[in-house]
Amino acid sequence: MFLWGTATAAYQIEGAAEEDGRGLSIWDTFAREPGRTRDGHTGDVACDHYHRWREDVALMSGLGLNAYRFSISWPRVQPLGDGAVNARGLDFYDRLVDALLAAGIQPVPTLFHWDLPQALQDRGGWMNREIAPIFAEYARVVAERLADRVPLWITLNEPFVHMAFGHALGMHAPGQALLTGALPVAHHQLLAHGLAVGALRASGARQVALTNNCTPVWPASAEEPDVRAADAYDVLHNRLFNDPVLIGKYPDLSAYTGDLGFVHDGDLEIISAPLDALGINYYNPTRIAAPADDGLPFSDAGITGHPVTAFGWPVVPDGLRELLTGLKARYGDALPPIHITENGCSQEDVLTERGTVEDAGRIAYLEGHIGALRQAMDEGVDVRGYFVWSLLDNFEWAEGYHQRFGLVHVDFATQRRTPKASYAWLRSFLADQNTDT
After folding, report:
1. Belongs to which family (predicted)?
2. Peptide bond into 73 cis (omega under 30)
3. C-alpha span between 332 and 313 (Å, rounded)
């Protein structure tokens, strides 16, 4: 069965930041520091999904989805990251899973979507190798509660983005600016993933995946400095997180570090444990030029000649086809079935006096990308699912509540949900689909 779904993340929608025993996460800390997020917005309330989850499941059911990708809040389950388990936190996800199944929707949980317990950050966070087995134990705890009803699990969401924005550039929690000194964060996340694969399987999980954010990389010109810079970006954004998992080795990292001491004997064997699926999040290609004077081995040259989202991201549907066929060409039989675990766009959505949101740009975006997905499948790429980001307008990390990605408009003052025109379009589209293909 092909999975048609939407996706969300715990810190972006749940709220209830200090309820029912939830611990502090790095995003709680980061967002509450002045100047870290736009207008000082936090996820303390977000979409109040923790209290309104029944309403949100009804919205999914009304769409005709057969899958929902959500993330589990690590500090809600283990407030200090390890040790004591918060039963009330697990109870919340237990209720959510049962409600989804009752609505005919397959739950697809992600175990880590960037909300690391602050207590673990205080012990070094992802720069500390000891976090990897701690994550695996957390995976075991959650799976032992839910694996009897959840067939597909995702370990990590976008480890590249968490490394780059959170630890190399300081734009996301925990706000570190280590540049290429953040490479241990990549390795420790991947090691945690590999250990979690084993823990999940031992606890009854039938299918396990990892979600990577990937991008086609275009050199700004055919000149050697630009081509070399594009190759460097491809290594750090794409191959650093795909090669170890799929083929059991890192790409050449000698240009960025002379010390790979954080990689221990046996690590790559753990990291490359076979997967049942690979999650791919796609938003846009990246055009790269020779480095500027900022310490990085490349610079973003920007892409012109395409529409852009409210975020300023270029809308290039064919980039999804290019990405998927490129992954198949690079990894061949080592590439497991793919799920597009995020794809969507932010728009300047306006709630009219009639109580409608006419988001024609989002409809065109989805039409174009689903068409590109079908082209990739026609070219032999094994894709098993497509998840729209996102079900709801939500807390968009450092942008706070200024970027709206949802199929459903949220008035953050009243928490009123209003399905947009794109919601109606997707509902009609899904009604026409044969989900067995």
Report:
1. Belongs to the glycosyl hydrolase 1 family.
2. no
3. 30
Can you tell me the distance from the alpha carbon of 239 to that of 186, in angstroms, rounded to the nearest whole number?
A: 11
Residue 425 near residue 363, CB atoms below 8 Å = yes
**Cα 345 → chain centroid:** 14
Neighbours of 80 (CB within 10 A): 16
Q: Where are the domains of the chain?
A: 3-431
Classify domain 3-431 by CATH architecture. Answer: Alpha-Beta Barrel (3.20)
* C-alpha distance from residue 151 to each of 57, 107, 208, 306, 398 (Å): 19, 8, 8, 39, 33
Distance CA(331)–CA(116), nearest Å, equals: 31
Q: Active site residue: 158, 223, 224, 353, which one?
A: 158
Cα angle: 398, vertex 393, 387; to 5 degrees: 100
* 137 given a catalytic annotation: no
Assigned token pair, 8: 């969300």
Tell me the DSSP string of 352-366. -TTS----HHHHHHH
Q: For the whole model, what pTM was predicted?
A: 0.97
Residue of 14, 322, 342, 396 with catalytic role: 342
Res 437: pLDDT: 44
Mean pLDDT in consecutive groups of 10 residues from the start of the chain, 437 residues: 98 98 98 98 98 98 98 98 98 98 98 98 98 98 98 98 98 96 97 98 98 98 96 97 98 87 97 98 98 84 98 98 98 98 98 96 98 98 98 98 98 98 98 68
Local structure of residue 126 (DSSP, 8 states): G
Only one residue has tokens 């190798």, namely: 129
* Pair 97, 150: CB distance under 8 Å: yes
Work out the angle between the directed axes of helices 421-431 and 49-63 (0-180°, nearest 10): 50
Query: Which pLDDT score is estimated for 64?
Result: 97
DSSP state of 63: H
Chain-centroid distance, C-alpha 55: 23
- Pull the structure tokens for residue 213: 């954010």
pLDDT at 255: 82
Report the pLDDT value the prediction gives residue 295, as an integer from 0 to 100: 72
CA distance linking residue 5 with residue 340, whole number of Å: 10
Task: Concatenate the DSSP letters of all residues of 152-189 into one string.
Answer: EEEEEE-HHHHHIIIIIS-SSTT----GGGGHHHHHHH
- In the annotation, is 342 catalytic? yes
